[in-house]
Design a protein that fits this description.
two-stranded parallel sheet, 55% helix, 190 residues, mainly alpha, 10 helices, 2 strands, Endonuclease III, domain 1
Length: 190
């Protein structure tokens, strides 16, 4: 018997299936992992998620395991090195945004104490439980992702528009957006 999964998971893409089954929508409460998801969602803008999944290890290597303190020290030479790295998306705006976002994250942590608490505050600390029956039911953004985007931008983050923020919320488990027929929906229901 085969498992029913969300419609976006292609059966011919094992990496997507593994990501869906093990990570997507699982609540993340770790600053570094949340930062990883935020940077990867920003890198994905205009591309397919499959492309980013294939380059994820390249991103981990190129961006110091998503250690914000190390990334914040990247300089112009670092940017040039990253723009030659075929293991990531070589887009100057996205690369410089990732470095700027590390600096913004450190400022936020100094002010708020925890990126985790800050991010989870947008959903009162509890994943939003949606009841979508089809992929077409899911919005590209929500009022919460609009507020998150505006707040992150005010704090100096870039590549954090409302659609990117909603995809980040889905990936990091701030919302349960597995469709109700997906086997992961019930597993992640709180």
């Amino acid at each position: 018997m085969s498992l029913t999964r969300c419609q976006w998971v292609g059966s011919s893409r094992p990496l997507d299936t593994e990501y869906h089954d093990l990570e997507w929508g699982v609540p993340v409460r770790d600053d570094r992992r949340l930062f990883e998801f935020l940077l990867l969602e920003g890198a994905q803008a205009g591309l397919s998620w499959s492309t980013i999944l294939k380059k994820r290890e390249g991103y981990r290597r190129a961006f110091a395991g998503f250690d914000a303190e190390r990334i914040a020290r990247f300089n112009r030479r670092s940017v040039e090195r990253l723009l030659r790295d075929t293991g990531i998306v070589r887009n100057r705006l996205k690369v410089t945004a990732a470095i700027g976002n590390a600096r913004a994250l450190l400022r936020l942590q100094a002010e708020q104490g925890s990126f985790t608490d800050y991010i989870w505050g947008f959903v009162d600390g509890v994943p939003v439980q949606n009841t979508w029956t089809a992929l077409s039911d899911m919005p590209a953004q929500t009022p919460t992702s609009v507020v998150m985007s505006k707040n992150l931008r005010q704090r100096g983050f870039r590549f954090v528009g409302p659609t990117i923020c909603y995809a980040f919320m889905q990936a990091a488990g701030l919302v349960n957006d597995h469709t109700t027929d997906c086997f992961r929906y019930a597993e992640l229901r709180y």
